[in-house]
């Protein structure tokens, strides 16, 4: 308002605005400026490694059906505190989808935090040093959605698995989790050493969840062969809960 007031008052005097019109213009400018500032702060706090947007996503070439995409981009699943799980081979659009949805959520006013699974577990490991795991988890769950990419990229030990379970259990029906993994759910035992804990994690993660199974060739490999485009790939959508 301070920055805009001098020039606005000149315009108001020239165009003979009423005091109410001047005040309305100043307040609207202040609200717009604060909204933009808050959006920048949310985007920084989200800690996205790169910027990916919905507009950049090539839906016809992806393995996500249009109705599923429409539901995900509506962000209703975040408002409903539901989860999202993307499962499929490397390069089939999982990370781009997570990042683009996260960016859209930030723009819509939601608080979002991005992690790779390794970074999330490492964050919780560090919190064990001063017995602050519970406090760190609660801080993370102040976000409306937490994105966990690359689940299963590296195997976890018993402690890491327990920490992951503790986080998923704390988020259950309180906040939205969005995860991506190249492992099918039946194979999660390959990177989670305790079968019972793996089942418990999946039980909470997949309840009230939209699951998208991606398939096809890697986007990156396809682009290396066909720099200007490639053929479409197929997928299936599973809705549970």
From TrEMBL:
InterPro entries: AAA+_ATPase, DNAC/IstB-like, IstB, IstB_ATP-bd, P-loop_NTPase. Residues 80-194 form the AAA+ ATPase domain. The keyword Nucleotide-binding applies. GO terms for biological process: DNA replication. SUPFAM superfamilies: P-loop containing nucleoside triphosphate hydrolases (SSF52540). One of its GO terms (molecular function) is ATP binding. Residues 220-241 are annotated as: Disordered. Keywords: ATP-binding, Nucleotide-binding. PANTHER family: ATP-BINDING PROTEIN RV3427C IN INSERTION SEQUENCE-RELATED (PTHR30050:SF4), CHROMOSOMAL REPLICATION INITIATOR PROTEIN DNAA (PTHR30050). Belongs to the IS21/IS1162 putative ATP-binding protein family. This is ATP-binding protein. It comes from Pengzhenrongella frigida. The lineage of its organism: Bacteria, Bacillati, Actinomycetota, Actinomycetes, Micrococcales.
